[in-house]
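Subject: Protein record for review, amino acid sequence with backbone structure tokens
How to read it: Take the token row as a discrete description of the fold.
Enclosed: The protein record, placed directly beneath this head.
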Amino acid sequence: MSFAMLEHLTEIFLFPEVKEFWFVSIIGLLMVVIGEIFRKLAVVTAGRAFTHVIRIYHDDHHQLVTHGVYR
């Protein structure tokens, strides 16, 4: 999220001609923000079930999350 904001602000201040079509930039920025909020909600909802490690086998203590954004 920080890098997306940094890129957006850098383009506005250093390369304003790239941002001629403001509606496209605003839509893109909104998509980034909404996507990041959705991702954070998913991580919080998953709690201990969330990990960056891809597992092939089922752990005995693992519970499938079926509430919140995972409905």
Observations:
- The first helix runs from residue 2 to 14.
